[in-house]
Amino acid sequence: MAAITNSSLSVKYAGEVDSGEPNGYSSSSKDGGSNNHSSPPRTASALQQHIAFFDRDNDGVIYPRDVYTGFRELGFCVLFSLGSLLIPIFFSYPTRLGHSWVPDPLLRIYVDDIHKAKHGSDSGVYDLDGNFNPERFDRMFSRFDTSGTGGLGAGDLAALWKKNRCAADPAGWSFAFMEWWTTWLLLQKDGRVWKDDLRACYDGTLFWKISVERSKGDGERNGYGFTEFIHGLWFAGSWKYWEIQTK
After folding, report:
1. What are 192's strand-pairing partners?
2. In sequence order, which residues have a C-beta less than 8 Å from that of residue 158 and are 6 or more positions away?
3. Is the pTM of this model over 0.85?
């Protein structure tokens, strides 16, 4: 699969972990899987936990190469992972402001000040301190889950993105579009981003699980990549390959 492959997800959320390990993952999983970096501390905000997967040595700093390696570990293709380097280009300086007014020449992202990189025209599920707002999250699905199935299709996500666009905020529109596009590519199953999977994405537990299961070759195929695109066009003349599978 050219873009991504992962597995069906079933994870515990921040504050609900009973394994003694934040987010349920550390440098080695209980079932034999392995990871080369550890989980964020329990006191981290949801937004800090969301990006902690990319902090390879858990030192609170994310280098551009860490972003690229993380995307590859999640199953994204080389081209898409190179595109992910736009993240440190745009978000390094806001997180740097907690430490210095001088831009970081290495374009590092500082985990402790990631809330300073929160942009406009987003979903509002993270508050200004980077904490998760469950009411906003539930309201998002109540309003935009047009099928009532507990998942958001591409059209639902487009409607959500359009609704959240603020006036005179093209940068926020662009960042939000890229984030939702990446989320759909990573998570979609049967054409939808399911609520439990998206919840796990917000607090970062999803990334640890995908990494472990990809390293073991376990699980079903989720996500959307070149394989699915070509398959749909070849057999039905449509990019919506999941509709072919249900016929």
Report:
1. 153, 189
2. none
3. no
